[in-house]
């Protein structure tokens, strides 16, 4: 009985002390997002296998298509390399976005996001922070593709400004597409299922595009499919920027697509995160 009374008295005293102190300010959205971005980077450091698709994928596809098919498709490996590298850049970042939903699904299944929802932070900061970590992966993948291309003889006529603009355009599209996979991860509970769906969408979009071949060489029905593929427009814009021609219409179309994807799926992801 005495112990119980002492415990009650201690609790009351603690409440009185806390009541006399000012309430801590709510952390800002930006600082929380940066904290969760750092968390995503630490996860990559502790599990380097997450960088497999960032490093190995572009190296394998670039070498394979350049030296196995470069002579047949482009006439020579040197000429084909200039056509291939912008396409591999797009394909690599598209495939890399697929792991965004899978990683988020793992966190959701482990219950860690349930604990995040109990914190006095804005829910949007949690999702934005995860995407900030992905931006680093996208930048690393872009460096691998461009660096390997330069080592093999790729010489973009757009020089550094054109290459930087092309990379920024692909990264912007990758971020907007990541919102789609984020919403998918909120609906599907299995990380394997999320990754399976993303790969089933991304690989056909990549191969039925102008990444590897010129659409004019394809049969009419297939050429129509390739020309209607949004990835084709993205690759065309990237090739133009790297070559120094700056295709304004294609770039504007891609930026509009980025804005639409973000405007639709970012609020949807946030709503699903709050109600899940």
Description:
Keywords: Antibiotic resistance, Cell membrane, Membrane, Transmembrane, Transmembrane helix, Transport. It is found in: Cell membrane; Membrane. It is a multi-pass membrane protein. The chain crosses the membrane at residues 51-74, 80-104, 125-151, 163-188, 200-222, 251-273. 82% of the residues lie in helices and 0% in strands. It has 276 residues and is mainly alpha-helical. α3 (52-74) packs across α6. It is elongated, with a radius of gyration of 24 Å.
Q: What's this model, at a glance?
A:
This protein is mainly α and 276 residues long. Helix content is 82%, strand content 0%. It has helices spanning 2-19, 29-46, 52-74, 77-110, 112-117, 123-152, 159-187, 191-207, 220-228, 230-243, 248-275.
Distance between the termini: 44 Å
The low-pLDDT segments are 5-9
Task: Work out the radius of gyration.
Answer: 24 Å
Into which percent range does the helicity of residues fall?
over 70%
Q: How are the SSEs ordered, and which strands pair?
A:
Elements: H1 2-19, H2 29-46, H3 52-74, H4 77-110, H5 112-117, H6 123-152, H7 159-187, H8 191-207, H9 220-228, H10 230-243, H11 248-275
Helix pairs in contact: 2-6, 3-4, 3-6, 4-6, 4-7, 4-8, 4-10, 6-7, 7-10, 7-11, 10-11
């Amino acid at each position: 009985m005495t112990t119980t009374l002492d415990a009650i008295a201690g609790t009351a005293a603690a409440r009185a002390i806390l009541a006399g102190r000012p309430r801590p300010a709510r952390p800002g959205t930006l600082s929380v997002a940066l904290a969760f971005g750092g968390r995503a980077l630490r996860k990559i450091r502790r599990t380097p296998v997450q960088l497999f698709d960032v490093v190995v994928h572009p190296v394998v596809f670039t070498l394979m298509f350049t030296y196995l098919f470069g002579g047949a498709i482009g006439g020579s490996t040197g000429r084909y390399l200039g056509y291939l590298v912008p396409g591999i850049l797009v394909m690599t970042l598209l495939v890399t976005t697929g792991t965004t939903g899978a990683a988020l699904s793992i966190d959701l299944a482990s219950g860690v996001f349930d604990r995040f929802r109990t914190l006095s932070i804005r829910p949007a900061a949690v999702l934005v922070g995860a995407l900030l970590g992905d931006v680093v992966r996208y930048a690393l993948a872009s460096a691998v593709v461009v660096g390997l291309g330069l080592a093999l003889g790729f010489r973009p006529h757009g020089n550094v400004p054109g290459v930087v603009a092309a990379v920024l355009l692909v990264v912007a599209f990758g971020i907007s597409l990541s919102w789609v996979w984020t919403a998918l991860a909120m609906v599907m509970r299995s990380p394997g299922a999320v990754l399976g769906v993303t790969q089933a969408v991304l690989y056909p979009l990549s191969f039925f595009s102008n990444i590897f071949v010129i659409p004019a060489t394809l049969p009419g029905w297939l050429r129509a499919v390739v020309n209607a593929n949004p990835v084709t427009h993205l690759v065309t814009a990237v090739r133009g920027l790297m070559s120094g021609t700056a295709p304004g219409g294609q770039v504007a179309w891609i930026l509009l697509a980025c804005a639409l994807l973000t405007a639709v799926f970012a609020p949807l992801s946030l709503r699903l995160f709050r109600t899940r």
